[in-house]
Amino acid sequence: MRRRRRRAVLLLVLLLAVGGTAVGVTELVHRPADQPSSTAGDTRLANGLGGAGVRVEPSGYPTEGSGGFAAADGDSPVRGSGGPLRRYRVAVEQGTGQDVDDFAATVDGVLGDPRSWIASGQLRLQRVAVAAAADFTIYLASPATSERMCAEGGLTTERYTSCRLPGQVIVNLARWMEAVPNYGAPLETYRTYVINHEVGHELGEGHQACPRPGAPAPVMQQQTYGLDGCVANAWPYVDGARYEGAPVDGV
């Protein structure tokens, strides 16, 4: 009798232990998607180690993030020697594994460079943290989110290109991570180009054509779709002068 009771108790304990483990796994798998997560949690999500339904590219970035954005804190110095002041805000989609401060530092470095738009002497730029103080926001968004955002303004990007809507510069994470095939320049050059190009639209610039084969591509050329014989160029000012191509009608 005692042996039977002892076996029964051991069996009951074993069943409870197994059952408790199974419940723990179920809770982990079915954790609500809107539950707040830490930075480490966002990184695991982007690397495909968590978050059911998140599609991750071979290079390691997700095709779709949370849809929510985190903005960079603090204000940058005013860059530029004269002209009206345009204030911009920088935000990164959460769940993409990208650091908002790193992205903001890159944007600040590009827009504050003497080869960028401030070289005209007729424009000053400053990054701000408060949305109400910003004239426009520069977003880094996953391909799916950027497509939805651009579509709200009637633009079709097929999850491939970046875009600009009034008050919104939307940089596609896929292009930020991979640039484009046959660009012929480092990723850093493409990143500089896409910032200057889309911000150029926000400043009123239209698309331009390649001047001639072998020449630098104007920054307002649609370099994402090809260079048309030009070579990659990320800056609106080259050798201290505004560098442009012929306007492209209708775009």
Automatic annotation (TrEMBL):
Residues 32-84 are annotated as: Disordered. InterPro entries: DUF3152. Residues 60-228 form the DUF3152 domain. It holds the Pfam family DUF3152. This is DUF3152 domain-containing protein. It comes from Micromonospora globispora.
